Amino acid sequence: MTPVTEVENTPTATSDSVDLRIQDRIATITIGTGLRFNALGLIDWQALERTCVGLAADETLVGVVFRGRGGIFCAGSDLREWDNSSAQDVDGTFAQMERTLQAIERLPVPTIAVIETIAAGAGCQLALACDVQLAEESAKVGMPVSRLGILVPPAFASRLAERVGPSRAKDLLFSDRMLPSLRAAAIGLVSTVVPDEDLDKTLEETLTGWNTVAASSLRTAKAAVNSALKQVTGPSRQTAVALRATDRVEFPKRIAAFLARHKR
After folding, report:
1. CA of residue 4 relative to chain centroid, distance
2. Are 94 and 241 spatial neighbours (Cβ–Cβ below 8 Å)?
C-alpha cells in the first residue's frame, strides 16, 4: 500500500467536518465530527463542494469514497442552524446543498457512499448523488422531511424517483418513515447491503476491483450512463435552486418543536 496523502480542502476551507485522504488512486472523504449523527452545517456543505470540485480535476483518481465519521453516515443538515433563521437563509442553505450534490454527481470517476447507521434527509440525498451505495444491514435510509415542513425541491425528488420510480418516491415523501437497508435495497434505493461485520471487507473488494480495470473504461462507463439519463435528470437539476425550500408558517414551528424534544 502506498502512503496516505492528506489533502486540505482549499486554503479557505474552515470546516472540521470534511476530511480528504488519497491512497492508491482512491480518494476517501470522511464527513462529520461523529456528533449529532454527522449532520452538516452550511460551511460543511461549502467545504464538501470545494473538495469535490478539486477532485474532479485530478486525473490520477479511479474512485471516491464517501463515509461518515464514527460509524455513522449522515443525518442531513444541522437543524440547529435553522432555529430562528430567516426563510431566505434556509433557502440559501438548500441551494448550497444542491450545489454540493451536483458537484458530487459531476465527479468523473465512480463514487460510493458507505452507509452506516443512518442516511436521512440530505444525508440520503448525498448517498443518492453517488453512483453506488454500500449499506450495512443495520442501517436505515429515508427522506423523512415532511415532518418539518420542508418543500422537497425537484432535484431531491428526482434523485429519489430515478432510483425507485415515481410511485415509491411519492410514497416515501408522503410519509416520514425510514427504511431498513434490506428494504431500501429491495426497491433500488441502495445498491448493496451486507452484514455489518462485512462492510469494510466488501468496500475493500469493490475498490480493488476498480483499481484493477482500466481507469479510462471506468470514466467512460460512468459518462455513458449519465449521458443516457441526462434528458431525465437535466431539467430537475437546472431548476433545483430557484424554489422556496420551506413552508413559511409550518417550518419554524416544526423546527422549534423538534429541537425542543431533542434537548430533553
Report:
1. 24
2. yes
Nearest in space to 32 (alpha carbons), one of 137, 140, 119: 119
Give the whole-angstrom CA distance, residue 60 versus residue 66. Answer: 18
What are the extents of the domains in the chain?
Answer: 5-198+215-262
Q: Which CATH superfamily is domain 5-198+215-262 in?
A: 2-enoyl-CoA Hydratase; Chain A, domain 1 (3.90.226.10)
Rounded CA separation 184/172 (Å)? 11
Q: What is the DSSP letter of 82?
A: G
Averages of pLDDT over each 10 residues, the chain, 264 residues: 41 73 97 95 97 97 98 94 88 94 97 98 98 98 91 92 95 94 98 98 98 96 93 72 76 85 66
* Angle between the N-to-C axes of helices 215-239 and 87-105, in degrees from 0 to 180, rounded to the nearest 10: 150
